[in-house]
Amino acid sequence: MTPDRIRNIGIFAHVDAGKTTLTEQMLLASGALRHAGSVDEGTAQTDWLPIERARGISVRAAQISFLWRGTQINLIDTPGHADFAGEAERSLAAIDGAVLVISAVEGVQPHAENIWRALEAMGVPMLIFVNKIDRAGSRFEQVCASFPESFEAAGTVFPVLRGAAGEGTAEPSVFEPQDLPARLTEALAEHDDAAAEAFLEERELDGEALEASLAACVRQRRAVPVFAGCAQRGIGVEALLDGILALLPPADKKSAEGLSALVFKIEHDRTMGKLTHVRMFSGELRARDTLTLPGGQREKITQIRKYNGQKYTDAGYVGPGDIAVLCGLSSTRVLDALGEPRASLPHGLANAFLSVRVIPESEDRLPALLTALRELSEEDPLLDCKWEPSERELLISCTGKIQLEVIAALLLERYGLTVSFSEPSVIYRETPPRAAEGFDAYLAPKPCWAVVRFGIEPLPRGAGVVYDGGKVPNNTCFYRYQEHIRRSFFESLAQGPLGWEVTDLKVTLLYAEHHTIHTHPLDFFVCTPMALMNGLKNAGTGLLEPFLSVRVSAGSEYLSRVIGDVTQMRGEFDAPVLRGDAFTLEAALPVATSLEYPVRLAGLSHGTALYASRFLEYRPCATELGRTARRRGPDPLDRAKWILYARDAITGN
What we know:
Elements: E1 6-13, H1 19-30, H2 50-55, E2 62-68, E3 71-77, H3 85-91, E4 97-103, H4 110-122, E5 126-131, H5 140-145, H6 147-150, E6 163-164, E7 174-175, H7 180-188, H8 193-200, H9 207-219, E8 226-228, H10 237-247, E9 260-269, E10 273-282, E11 285-286, E12 290-292, E13 298-300, E14 303-308, E15 311-314, E16 317-318, E17 323-327, E18 337-339, E19 354-360, H11 366-379, E20 386-388, E21 393-398, H12 401-415, E22 419-421, E23 425-426, E24 429-431, E25 436-442, E26 450-458, E27 465-468, H13 479-492, E28 501-502, E29 505-513, H14 523-539, E30 542-555, H15 559-568, E31 572-573, E32 577-579, E33 582-590, H16 591-594, H17 597-604, E34 610-621, H18 639-646
Parallel strand pairs: 1-3, 1-4, 4-5, 5-8, 24-28, 27-29
Antiparallel strand pairs: 2-3, 6-7, 9-10, 9-18, 10-17, 11-16, 12-13, 14-15, 14-17, 19-21, 19-22, 19-23, 20-21, 24-30, 25-26, 26-29, 30-33, 30-34, 31-33, 32-33
Helix pairs in contact: 7-8, 7-9, 13-14, 14-18
């Protein structure tokens, strides 16, 4: 098969599986590097931040480009630690295929399972690379056999294209099994017509026919080929690169169509300002082009860069199917569509369910800290920086303590700010349990005139927010005012009657009315929050709390104690799996009661127990078990005070 010009690939893994080392070896094999860098020595191309080199882990997604057999591979190296899953999640929309790295020693870890689910939800084809087959304790065959169960993919074929010659061998050998064509033909028969025909005729596919059949199944997510090797020693890397070219889909190249691009990453440069990382789906861009952004702003591209880790070249042009960085666009945001929207937006991998207060070393540093955190929130929207002027507090959302350490390091390195953090508190949400209507007529003090009526319906857990603009005619309410209602509606969901973000509901605009003389352009920004909060009050919102999916493995002597702890924490658990004198317990735990449990479990087991967790979902919570958040700013239900505040007649609470 003749490969196409571009492959856009993401490389993913649980932390310490060897993902960044594999990336270095790909660069070495392609000739892009003379010597491979080392994670331990802090010389890896894609780990260039000081905090990454100091800790030996990736905290930001980094892109590199190199040629392999005449094809340009744009590779995004994503963080493997769950605290930085947002970086991996945002990269999903920019790629056409993925490589999932699994350690042959540790096997499938919880975050790898999370990544699989996210790739499955996005429909991204992938290859698996089983790393560290040279290590003592390597369990190559068992690890491969666990894939269908670990990834909940019973109908997926996992053909081993490159395997280890002997489990746990000190000297790894990567080989292509002699009976591979026959085994692949049989494995693909259920998913591919050509393979099924060959199998029924008792013959095997070979050569290009076999490769074409396998590639078709990979791109339909029916097969996930498994490669193996030792990234640190470069074993199996070239076979994996050949597999990327032969099996993963090429980038579309549709220059004749109009512009369609997606912003998947934002960074800031001291000289050039905001750096906008884009994946091009169609069209072309050149330096000095002027773009109309989603917010309506028109801004000029001052430079187009191609990055390799920290280094870049001034490309001046980016075409369809490619990835590049645009300079000069100060108003872009992560996941903005430039031109015609094309990509599916990622979801479900990253969830910030903790909130902390960021405390500067002195009060006079608060303005600088606010500016810095807002800039970091542009790069990572999950931080969601909030300023509470009445309390003079800065709050951010986070996923764990390691993320807070990285934020503190970035604030010091980039902005010269020393900070501390409060203890994390849980972020609850709220949702309406029943249908209701909300209404408000903002008719005084004149000049003003805005009338809004909403219908509110609850949706299933995890459904998010659906807004239906209804069919209000333009002569009743100008369409531009209806757009004001839509924008204000989404902004108003940040705080419900209990003070938390409102989710899992559908809201329909039933009626809206303006007055040709008295309506001011901002009136619907005043009226909409009052109508929405009236409806939520009528529906009576209830609390939702975050739950974790937890896996505990320990000696059987600790089983009864762990089950007692899970029960005390309001958790639910499945029947434990016993293997010899050890057990594994799967449980669902509320974040609020289990924040400190990993430390307690380590003390109980003298450090021998293994604890792994991932975000599971938000579940209903009795109000007395959760807590009501302090409201930021006036409550729209306090109508008189809200109107004065919205009209800038008063400030604060």
